[in-house]
Write a structure and sequence with these properties.
It is built from 14 helices and no strands. By secondary structure, it is mostly helical. α2 crosses α12, α3 runs antiparallel to α14 and α9 runs antiparallel to α12.
Amino acid sequence: MKENRSLPPGSRDEWLDLLRALAVSLVLASHGSWFFAHPEESVFANVTATLGVEIFFVLSGFLVGGILFEQVMSGASWHNLLPTFWARRWIRTLPSYYLFLGLNILIYQRSGLPPLAPYFAFLQNFAHPIPAFFPESWSLAIEELFYLFFPLIVMAFGKLHGRSIRTFIAAGAFVFLISLATRIGAVILFEPTMETGIRKVAIFRLDAIMTGVFAYIAMKWIRPSHKPALLMAGLVVLAFSIVILAKPQAELDHSFFARTFLFNLLQLSVALLIIAGIGRIQLPYGAAAGVTALSKWSYSLYLVNLPVIIVIHSFWRLQPHASVATLMSAVLYASICLVLAAGLYHYFERPILSWRDRKTLGRSSDMLRSELRS
C-alpha cells in the first residue's frame, strides 16, 4: 500500500470545499428553476438536483466513512469507537434537522400532516416514497440510516474475521450489493418511477454513500501521476451520465438502466473527480473564501431553501414562466437562503459544533477533521 494520503486533522481541502459548494449550488439552482418552469417539465431541475445530491452522498461517504475507516484501522475498542462516532455524527446533524422538522410542521399544519413518528426516526422513506411533507429530508434519512447501520456491520465483520482493510471492504461490499440488489429487484418486480420510487427511497440508495467510502480507501493506492487520467475518466463518465439523465422523465421512469445502474455511474464519476482533485486545487483567495463559506453553510442551505420557496410563493403566487417578476423572485430566493444559512451556521450550528468538539475530542483526538464539519 502507498503511504496514507488522508488529510491531517484540522485541515481543509479546497477541492472538497469546492465540490460541496457546487453540490449545494446545484440543489439551489434546481429548486430556484421552479420559478421559471414546473419541476416535472424541467430537465434542468432534474439534472441539477440529482447531480447535486449524488455529490453530497459520495462526499459524505468519503469524509465521514473515511473517518470510520481510520478509527477502525487504528484498533480503537468498539465500545469507545462506535458511541463516539455516533455522538459526533448526531450532534452535527440532528439539531438542525429537528429544528427544520418543527418549522415544517408549522408550515404544513393547515394543509394536513402525515404521521410524524417516522420523521423522528428517519424512517419516512425507508422502503417507500417520501410523503409531500418535509420532502427535502429524504436524503438526510438515507445518510442517518447508513451511519447507524454500516458501523454495526463493520463491527460484525470485524469480530468474525478480524480487523483488516480486506474485512472493512468486505463489509462495505455487503452493504453496496444489498442496496443494489434491492434496487434491481424493485425495478423488476414493481416498476417504480425513477424519482419518487427509486431515487428517494432509502434502502435503494445506501450504495451511493458506500461509493464515497470506497473512494477514500482507493485513494491510498493512487499515485499523483494517476490523477490526470482519473480526472479525464471522471469527466467522461459524468458527461455520459448527464446525457442519459437529461432524457424526458417519462423515458427515465421506464428505463431499467436509468433506475438501476445510472446512479452508480454518477457516483463513480464523482468518486473519480474527488480522488483526482484532492490536494491539487488551490483557489484564489477571494474565491476560496466564498467557496469555504458556501461549503460551511451547505447543510443549512439544503434545509432552508424549500421553506423559503414556500414562503415566497405564498406571498406572490407567481406562475412559473420567464419574466422580470420571476427573475426578481429567484434572486430574492437565493439572497434570503444565503443570509438565513449564514446566520444559522454562525449562531446555531457552529456553537453546537464547538460544544461537541470540547466534549468529544478529548476521547478521540484524531477522530474527525473538525474543520471539514461533515
